[in-house]
Amino acid sequence: MSHSKTLSGEGAACLPGSKSGLRSEMKDVSKFLEQSEKSVPGYNSCGGKKQKGIASVYGIRGRDNFAGKRTASGETMRPEKLRAAILRSASHQYPMGSWVRVKNGDRSVVVCINDKGGGKRGRVIDLSAAASAKLGGEDLTKVEVECLLKPADGPGRCDDKVAAHITANDY
User: Fold this and answer.
1) Mean pLDDT of all residues in 106-123
2) Among 32, 41, 82, 164, which is most exposed with the fewest C-beta within 10 angstroms?
3) Which helix H or strand E contains 25, and what residues bound it?
4) Largest separation between any pair of C-alpha atoms in the chain
5) Which tens digits make up the pLDDT trace of 66-104?
6) Helices H / strands E in the chain, number of each
7) DSSP strand E in 2-106: where?
């Protein structure tokens, strides 16, 4: 009496010898692990929303009155932190606590949105002095803003552990 059976259907696809079996399953596992490494508890992907415009600098000690003041998120404006104010026209796309990448040519910086700025024509974001320095330190510069992560439960505060995660996982 023979105990061997021929597998067909889904079970056959998992056999190492099958063309689409183990290899495709391993690709799926790799893809899942890659995505899970990029997930951050309490945050959702923004879907890569992008916006082009002008970035300005704010919070420079001695130049304007924002350094040391409370931001819209409740955080204190500290020019040495990688933070930004999103302008009113874009605030619905980037809620407080969102992490965005700001690019200028081959330079980029990842910042957290912790404030709301005015609505000067053509401007999309106001950068802290530290963030501006990473892009070359100009007062006004053309940029592309790409949303990376936003708080899952609506507007929130900036968590610097998230920045480390973004950097480590090459978003």
Assistant:
1) 85
2) 41
3) helix 21-37
4) 92
5) 777 888 888 888 878 888 888 766 656 788 899 999 999
6) 4, 7
7) 43-45, 50-57, 83-87, 99-104
Which has more confidence, 3 or 105?
105
Tell me the C-alpha to C-alpha distance, in Å, between residue 38 and each of 27, 34, 81, 167, 171: 17, 7, 23, 10, 7
Task: Tell which residue, 152, 65, 69, 62, has the closest CA to residue 114.
Answer: 69
| Beta bridge pairs of residue 123 | 54
Residue 89 DSSP code: G
Q: Would you place residue 135 in the very low, low, confident or very high pLDDT band (cuts 50, 70, 90)?
A: very high
Handedness of CA 90, 91, 93, 94 (dihedral sign): positive
* Torsion of the alpha carbons at 14, 19, 20 and 21, rounded to the nearest 10: 10
- Within 51-135, residue ranges assigned H as helices are 129-134
DSSP 113: E
3-class secondary-structure state, position 164: helix
Question: In Å, how far from its chain's centre is CA 47?
Answer: 10
Per DSSP, what are the bridge partners of residue 108? 103
